Every structure is written in structure tokens, then in C-alpha cells.
Amino acid sequence: MKQLMFRFSLVALLLLFGLGSDFYYTPSPTVTSASTMKELESKLDQKIREQSNEITMEYTGDQKELSADFAKLLRNVFAKDDYTAYILDSYLYTIRTWGSTAKIKISIKYRETAGQTEQVAAQIKKLLPTIIKPYMTDLQKIKMIHDWIVLHVAYDLSLERYTAYDAIHTGKTVCQGYSLLAYRMLNEAGIEVRIIEGTVDSGNHVWNLVHIGDTWYHMDVTWDDPIPDREGKVSYSYFLKNDAQMKKDHQWVKWYPAAN
Predict the structure, then answer these.
(1) What is one term from the GO cellular component aspect held by the record (predicted)?
(2) pLDDT tens digits, residue range 78-124?
(3) CATH value of 15-110 in 1.20.120, 3.20.20, 3.30.110, 1.10.287
(4) C-alpha angle with apex 143: 137 to 146, nearest 5 degrees?
(5) Domain 114-252 coded CATH 3.10.620.30
(6) pLDDT band for position 1 (cuts 50, 70, 90)
């Protein structure tokens, strides 16, 4: 059975309190700064969406609030965009304080580089007009994208390929890559879509939720792709299913919009 091999994110926090004198540290005018947690969140969100691997910021707000809430804030920023959340591999951050200023350094490792993500976007922009036509309904668009992925991607039995980039450039990936590719293609086609995280009998798994009209539906492209790969074969066993149908063999571990 197909499963997702999660690489859990590494989170580390180091608080180093200085001697309380600005003699030891002079804030740099070229480093991004924030004075409130809301401003910090907004500026971090921008950096992370750019897939910056090294982020340095200065914070001049309440240091007790920063210490208590920064880990949660960072998790929330990563979770804002499903694509970013599921190409994240690991991250490490430190917070050092000098007097009224805190210096935050974050090192982030992504499963896709920024350049690879740009290539995915470019390939999808080129591909979609060949499979989707302006007169198509949302249902037709979703079906065409579902079918294209099933017919052009095979499940990676080595469990080494996790991304949409892998799916497009090697033709192989695990459920994470299937779901990421579907997410980017559907987004580009104007379809509201989520990546949903859960479990199946064999372990961790991810798939998609798609929005048609006023209703959400589950779509598991991975499980609609036969193993071993069978040329020209597309299954619809997990295409546009409601919660009750999906719960027979899928369980989700977070809150998502109801598919009823």
C-alpha cells in the first residue's frame, strides 16, 4: 500500500542573553527588523515564500512574548501555504538578545530549491493550456489534471522522491509529490485546493481536497494510480469522494473543511 515517508521538521531554539549592553551589538540598518509579533510574522512569511534558506531578523518588541510565542508563530507561517508546508524538510533557529534588541537567525532546508519550484511553475504554465480549455467546467478541469498526473507519474517504490519537481522531471514520486503537483496544477487552473495530511493502514499519507461550487471533495491521485504502473490505466476509486466515503480507509489528523 502506498504511504508517505515523513521527514519530520527539526526545530531548535537557543536563547542567548547578552550582558545587556549595546556595546556588544549594533543593529544593522540592512537587516530586516520588526517591532511587533504581527509585523514579524508578516515579514517572515514573505521570506519563507521566497524560499530563503538563511533568514536574519532583528526584533525590538517584547522579548518575553517573543520567547514564549515564536515557535508557534513560525509553525503558523509555514502552515499558511500548503505547498510551502510540504516542501519543508527541516529548520533550525536561534534567538540572541542584546539589551532591547533580539537577533533571530533561521536556517531552513527545503526538499525543493527555489529554482526547482520556479521550474515547476514554468512547466505547469506551459502544460496546462494543452490539457485544459477555456470552455471547461471546474469538474472537467479537475478530471483532466487528475488523469494527466495518473498517466504521466509513477509511484516511487524507492521512497526517495517527495516533490512536484521530482514528479515532473523524473516521472516518479511518492504521495507527497503527487499531492504537491496536483495542488500547483489545480491552483494554476483557478481551482481552490488543499493538501490533507492523515494516515492509512500502511502509515502516513497525504492527498488533496478540491472545491467545486459550495462543496469540498477528497481526491487521492496517488491511490488512483495503479502499482505497478499500468500504461493508459486511470482509476476513479478516490476521485471526488465525501468524508464518509473516504473514512473507510483514510483518516485525517488535522482540521480541514468538511466534504459532505
Answers:
(1) cytoplasm
(2) 999 999 999 999 999 999 998 999 999 999 999 999 999 999 999 99
(3) 3.30.110
(4) 140
(5) yes
(6) very low
Q: Which three cell numbers stand for residue 46?
A: 514573505
Question: What is the maximal distance between C-alpha atoms in the chain?
Answer: 69
Q: Domain ranges in the chain?
A: 15-110, 114-252
SS3 of 106, please? strand
Beta bridge partners of 199: 204, 251
Nine-digit cell at 132? 485544459
Mean pLDDT over 183-196 rounds to 98
State the cell numbers at 114. 527555489
Which residue matches cell numbers 514528479?
167
- Pick from 171, 12, 9, 25: which is nearest to 98 by CA? 25
The three three-digit cell numbers of residue 109, written as one number:
532546508
- Reference 183, options 124, 110, 112, 229; nearest CA is 124
